[in-house]
Amino acid sequence: MLPVVILAGGLATRLHPITQTIPKALITVAGRPFIDHQLELLKEKGVTQVILCVGNLGSMIEEFVGDGSQWEMEVQYSYDGDVLLGTGGAIKKAAGILPDSFMILYGDSYLDIDFEPVVQQFYEDNLPVLVTVYRNQNALDVSNILMKDGRILKYNKNDRDPAMEYIDYGLIVIRKKIFDTYPSHEPFDLSLVLSQLVDVGQVAPYEVKQRFYEIGSVQGIKETENYIRNRAIPS
Prior knowledge:
26% of the residues lie in helices and 26% in strands. With 235 residues, it is an alpha/beta fold.
């Protein structure tokens, strides 16, 4: 299984004042810090290596997670430094410890899907990027992907098109080389990278049928907590 880069360096301003003193990854969800649930789920999916890109209050995350042995994982860290680098800049900063191909997961996402078919499709498509997509129709959040005939025609988080029915699900498989042309130690967003690659036909989609969960908002926390509690109930 490919390593997973978890992007956990943001300020999480939507959750202030809670996230002014603890990072979003350590918010209590169903009785435990969220990242505990996230790493437990990744281990269940077969992931054994994680790179945590951290920034704001990142040392608190490292203090809790440590080397990952609690989850039978190897966890490494990449710190933004004095300037928060954004989701793209954080990956660029971590390039020295990243393999040629890896998965990307947002630090507030809880994605209860099988990762293996996603990675397999990435290799079969043989494009630099594969983005998991969900037919959202503006239900869980504002849709940002235009799909037609199994191809991504447009990806944009800022310039929304009413024809967009899909949203990026939150799991991306990517080749490190695509970051070669981007500046080091400067902030930029991963969505910019993806949008530019979609425009030149270098991004493959993988459609997921099961909804995603996230803790980026108060409502999202409630829904994720409910899902995790019910998931833990023995059948």
